[in-house]
Amino acid sequence: MEKNHRKQIIPGLGEVSEETGFIFLDACSDGFYNVNKDGVISIISTGDKKVEFIVFEDRTIAYVGSGMGYPAYYPVLPVKYRKPVKAVLMDLDGTTVRSEEFWIWIISKTVSSLLDKPEFELENQDIPFVSGHSVSEHLRYCLNKYCPEKSLEEARNYYFKHTHHEMGEIMKGRGKKGAFTPSPGIKDFLYELKAMDVKLGLVTSGLYEKAYPEILSAFDTLGMGDPSDFYDCIITAGYPLRKGTPGTLGELSPKPHPWLYAETCRVGLGIDFSERNSVIGIEDSGAGISSVRLAGFTTVGISGGNIIESGTKGLCDYYCKSFDEIMKLIK
User: Fold this and answer.
1) Which of 67, 92, 100, 226 is 20 to 30 A off residue 39, Cα-Cα?
2) Number of structural domains, the chain?
3) Which Gene3D superfamilies match (predicted)?
């Protein structure tokens, strides 16, 4: 017998369904909104519970939680895909470059150091929580599960210690093999967009010191020159805060918050918010999909990441298996 999945049409998003991973709730996790009170018709969350949608008769707002104690609410505005496409915004890890396993490995090494257990490895069920978000979000999850007596500062110290060492080794040509591999079809896809005069933005929740060597290495492998010359805008989560040196904003405003994508498009590419329907964002992670959608752009998911597992496929305007398939949408 076919299972009946709960469905609902909500302002700003259209039809949502349990079939694509959404979860219907009785109350927002912060306790501020409840179904059938103060005009709230329903409350629906993504499968990973990172974003909750509070639905009213004429509008929807999104609540983005925070493992660091700074959640936020955002309006959910309708998106209508319009050609010609003016800009394509793309994620780095998992979408442009296959490196997610490397950074999960760094997280695992960090927890191993915190526990002083060289044999430690993360479990499969940890993966959706240690990819696609900020470093601090990843580490906070691991601390809560494996070593709650340790502090976030201790974890960050180990994380950046391992990162500095491994990135240095990679840049010297003797690091972890296969750490940064260009995604299949990415070279032809990017060159075709360039030939169409489509503006290109690269967007990542990764800190600059870990993100830029990835794309630099991938471009070197592909023989595409300097990525800073190729892309019209590259936005990262900035520089980490360490004792004795200034840091930049990035740890509290990463995906699934909309700010990285919004800044890339509006500030980096100079495209007005009123033209957002001619902009698409390509992502392979649940956090990234939420970020693109909350920024107000047509959302294209690409397979290979955790979109299905995170219960965010319902936020995708399109879900594709390859860059060739995405190009057919753009032309």
Assistant:
1) 67
2) 3
3) HAD superfamily/HAD-like, Putative phosphatase, domain 2
Q: 74: which strand partners?
A: 62
Q: Are residues 92 and 226 in the same domain?
A: yes
Instruction: Please state the pTM of the whole predicted model.
Output: 0.83
Are residues 196 and 315 part of one domain? yes
Closest listed residue to residue 45, CA positions, set 67, 24, 16: 24
- The structure tokens 């009946």 sit at 4
C-alpha distances in Å from residue 227, one per residue of 187, 209, 218, 230: 12, 15, 9, 5
Rounded CA separation 91/249 (Å): 19
* Per-residue tens of pLDDT for the chain, all 331 residues: 445 678 899 999 999 889 888 999 999 999 999 999 999 999 999 999 999 999 999 999 999 998 788 999 999 999 999 999 999 999 998 899 988 888 899 999 999 999 999 999 999 999 989 986 778 889 999 999 999 999 999 999 999 899 889 887 877 767 776 678 899 999 999 999 999 999 999 999 888 888 888 888 888 889 999 999 999 999 998 887 877 888 888 888 889 999 999 999 999 999 999 999 999 999 999 999 999 999 999 999 999 999 999 999 999 999 999 999 999 999 9
On whether both 214 and 314 belong to a single domain, the answer is yes
| 326 and 281 inside one domain | yes
94/237 same-domain check = yes
Residues 212 and 129 in one domain: no
Tell me the H-state helices in 172-226: 186-195, 208-222
For the chain, give the longest Cα–Cα distance: 63
